[in-house]
Amino acid sequence: MSVHEEIREQQKKLKGQGFKAHWDYFWEYYKIHTIVVIVAIIFISMLLHDVLTSKPYGFYAVMLNSGASSAQDILEKEFVEYTDFDSENYDCFIDTSSSYNLSVIDEMTIATSQKMMANIAAAELDVLVADSDVFTYYANQETFADLRTVLSTAQLEAVSDRLVYVDQSYLDYLNSDAYQDYISTGTFDENNKYAVMADNYNKDFKMPSTDKDTMEEPVPVGITVSDSTVLSGSGAYYNSSAVAGVVINSKRPALAAQFLYFLCPELADI
Predict the structure, then answer these.
(1) Is residue 123 within 8 Å of 253, Cβ to Cβ?
(2) Of 51, 57, 87, 97, which residue has the fewest beta carbons closer than 10 angstroms?
(3) Is-above-0.85 flag for pTM?
(4) Pair 119, 234 in one domain
(5) Total count of domains within the chain
(6) What is the CATH number of the domain that holds 122?
(7) Taking a C-beta distance cutoff of 8 angstroms, is the pair 231, 237 a contact?
């Protein structure tokens, strides 16, 4: 007997049997199909809802190793209120859950590194806050803008004791043919302090000094914000260091500067 013939036979048997009999028959033969269709409809509806209601980023900051994933909602809400942010048309995203471990290259570190690289390359990221070692690592990857292009001279003077620097001469060495030769051969000029610094980092991950007095061409790229009442109020970086910098290719530098004001209110008064 074919499938169609079997269905006709079942329909004859169900004729006049009432709704319950028809329902029992339907559920017995089409239960799996029905569940699959319902799940598919729910999934597609959720996907369409996310697509239709999602908004482009109007501001995006990452706080690496903040130790307080719950701080995200607090900081986003406070920053939106602080700036009069257009939350109707844009999303404000302050990621406080990502972590990056310089000494252990695990799956989390690799995933974070890839996400950071992708967001920076796409010019999506505006501000990066991190503990001092991780901030220095990214500073030496030429991640941050020169704060002299973001803040006024008076503002820089107001936080002069909290500025974090990177040596442009060291960055130039990392971009040189001499450094590429070192990567290929392992040999370097031991009389070149920047070659020695690079070798020390590649051997034991020892971060270059952030003391501007040791630098030939110091560039201010970050502000230590460990004592920020905004951060302490959110629980981020509790009992740990934190440095904030504007990402070098931010598409929203004015808003990124406002985030520095948000963390350091004294800047807004100058």
Answers:
(1) no
(2) 51
(3) no
(4) yes
(5) 2
(6) 3.40.190
(7) yes
